[in-house]
Amino acid sequence: MSGLRDSGYKALVIIEDIGLFIIAISTVIAMVFEIVSMFKALNVTLADLLLLFLYLEVLAMVGIYLKSGKLPVRMPLYIAIVAVARYMILDMKNLETLRVLGLAGVVFVLAISILAIRFGHTKFPYNKDDN
């Protein structure tokens, strides 16, 4: 039974790596398309830069996961904050006051979540035996 479990685990690790490779390649392709569109427009906007930053954050998250085998929960939260900021920048003229306040609340809750996670990691660190 142990051999079957080990084989299943190895298969899942391979599938995980393939999925991460697909995510990384797709992100790089999206970055290239964005850069090409900036060159065609001969214009770089803050929204373009934030989108490129989002792509870099996704690549960093994939790199961290491949290197350590663990995904820090904070990484997707950082990406979410940048995504909300990008949305607000792109639609600022069309956003109603309540929606802006709601989005600001989302960013605030995400930031508090990151602080809570950081506090938990520093105040209550994992044991070396914990996986």
If you had to describe this structure to a student in words, what would you say it looks like?
Helices cover 82% and strands 0% of the residues. With 131 residues, it is mainly alpha-helical. It has two domains: 1-70; 72-131. Helix 1 runs antiparallel to helix 2, helix 2 runs antiparallel to helix 3 (74-90) and helix 3 runs antiparallel to helix 4 (97-123). The longest helix is centred in the N-terminal third of the chain and has 40 residues, at 2-41. The two termini are 23 Å apart. The mean pLDDT is 91.
- Gyration radius from CA atoms, angstroms: 19 Å
Which regions contain 5 or more consecutive residues with pLDDT less than 50? none
Distance between the amino and carboxyl termini = 23 Å
Number of domains: 2
Shape: flat
**Helical stretch count?**
4
How much strand?
Answer: under 5%
| Mean pLDDT level | 91
Q: What oligomeric state is this?
A: single chain
- Total number of strands: 0
Broad structural category: mainly alpha
> How much helix is in the residues?
over 70%
Biggest sheet layout: none
Q: Note the run of SSEs as H and E.
A: HHHH
